[in-house]
Amino acid sequence: MRTWKFGDNIDTDAIVPGRYLTIYDPATLASHAFEGTRDEYAKQVKEGDIIVAGRNFGCGSSREHAPLALSGAGVRFIIARSFARIFYRNAISVGLLPLVCPDADKIPDGSELVVQMNEGYVVSGGKRYAIEPVPGFLQEIVNAGGLVEYARRLEEVKTCTGSRS
Amino acid sequence: MGKSRTIAKDLTVKRLGKISEIFPVRAECTMKFSRNAAISPQNTRTGKTHTLVKPIMAATLVEKIFSRRCGHPVRAGEVIMAPVDAAMIHDITGPLAVQKFREMGGKKVFDPGKIVLLFDHQIPADSLPAAENHVFLRKFAIEQQIENLDIKEGICHQVVMERGRTAPGEIIVGADSHTCMYGAAGAFSTGIGSTDMGFVLKFGALYFRVPETIRLDITGNFPTRVGAKDLILAIAGKIGADGATYQALEFAGETMQKMDMPGRMTCCNMAVEMGAKVGIVPPDTVTWEYLKARRKGVTPFPLESDRDATFSARHQIDVSTLSPKVATPHNVDQVVDVGKVAGTHIDQVFIGSCTNGRYEDLAEAAEVLGNRKFHDDVRVLVIPASRAEYLKALRAGIIEQFVAAGALVESPCCGPCMGGAFGLLAPGEVSLSTSNRNFKGRQGSSESFVYLCSPATAAASALRGEITDPREV
Fold this sequence. Notes:
The complex is a heterodimer.
Chain A: E1 3-5, H1 12-15, H2 26-30, H3 40-44, E2 50-53, H4 65-71, E3 77-80, H5 85-93, E4 97-100, E5 113-116, E6 121-124, E7 127-130, H6 136-144, H7 147-152, E8 161-164
Parallel strand pairs in A: 1-2, 2-3, 3-4
Antiparallel strand pairs in A: 5-6, 6-7
Chain B: H1 19-22, H2 61-70, E1 78-83, E2 86-89, H3 94-103, E3 115-117, H4 128-144, H5 156-162, E4 171-174, E5 188-191, H6 194-203, E6 205-209, E7 213-219, H7 228-239, E8 248-252, H8 254-258, H9 261-269, E9 278-280, H10 285-292, E10 313-318, E11 325-327, E12 335-337, H11 338-341, E13 348-352, H12 353-356, H13 359-369, E14 379-383, H14 387-395, H15 398-405, E15 408-409, E16 430-433, E17 449-452, H16 455-464
Parallel strand pairs in B: 2-3, 2-4, 4-5, 7-8, 7-10, 8-9, 13-14, 13-16, 14-15, 16-17
Antiparallel strand pairs in B: 1-6, 11-12
């Protein structure tokens, strides 16, 4: 349950390079995660480990290979100061939870980290760091276990319905 | 994201039910909710007209698009399940989208006529897995009766534009981040992932958070050899790689009105490099004329942000003093004047991509080139954005000019920008590219370097074998 710390603007090419985009199997993608960026990651990452990053995590391509390469190794949470839009949605779609944490920069690499979702914070090194709640509509998708599970329950969608975010 | 938001749990209480019920609404719900105009609905029972107590606030262009498609005013910040007018998938993200569509229980796509399917990233198939992905999508197209443009037409975004598959006021999604480009045609268009696309293939709709808008007012005339690419790089440098996250970037002002469609496409294409959902230009005569030649029965209608609409930010940019710009490794927002990096050795020059692979881009590069030869030590790859653009360049003699100068001209596709197909960089090598991303490893080795620039700067630099100001050759 260690943290893997990354900086700002970690792009999708860094998460999984373009030459692996014919692969769709999460476990195989996971073996190439952060290749050329942080080579020891794919060898050492363990089920339940947590990604911690700075601003704009997942910027760039719409490739869903990126969140799959992380979830394929058993990562369930990414904690960052901010996320790029498409990655944020893709992560939730595949059941990987992106959590916005304004103080993510202060969380050290390689530390133990516990996510207290309902309490709205994470704990690392005895310190609490506040996380922002996942927007309500997305929470429903998270609760369903991802967009596929959410969609399977729907016969059809009611368009032009919504609410304030 | 950034801010915490609360969303009501019940998303189904508001108007309209089935998708089939929403489509007829389109025509009627145009711009009634424009600036401070209260909607005056008629009570069907009593026949009386009554004015809503709360006046409708001024709206941005993007808010109007969502309102128009949904039949009632929606505002930035609302999360809404909106119908989709077109959906684009390609060879990289398509197979997973189809798989997800099936996992969701999808049997028949929502509307085969609204799906654009083509292959552009790995064509002709560069590996067995790529070939198998192509076969998989070909079978899906036959099964679902979707027109498959296969490997024949070029880069997805260019093809969507030139075939008139996008129009002002529409909502379009594509399983590729540079889908944000169709805002050049006045549409709301945005890139989505494969699972989201699976949802769209099944339901013909997707949930969107209606974005706030950053308005860019562009004024002045471009100096010689400075153009749309230099402008958008300058904006990226100013706003930053996440400066427009979850927002729309609206390009307006006299300079945009004078800009041709290819220039507008270059600007809108790179909106995502600032995190934006869409880059959009208010449709005008240029837009409607472009579209008339490409789609039957197009009727222009007014669509622009109200003057007193609420923007999250406004920037004024005067292009008359702009210099040619270069984005330096490894971030798109690390932008400098070309003079700062002039003399940098380059191994490869790539002129092409959805950002700068159109006829006008190739013509500009060819104009800089003249009848000279490219530098012996530089590999020059020229890849037109589509078959149509390729033919235009071919007929104008531009392709011959490139080949005579020593370039490799490849068939329309994403080329080295895909980072896996061909034209890859070895460790330590440097590429100067007219494409849109210079991330570490984007065009090959994670120890290579990519600089981004305009077609003019690319051609000038290819002549000298080092980064060169196009005004100097």
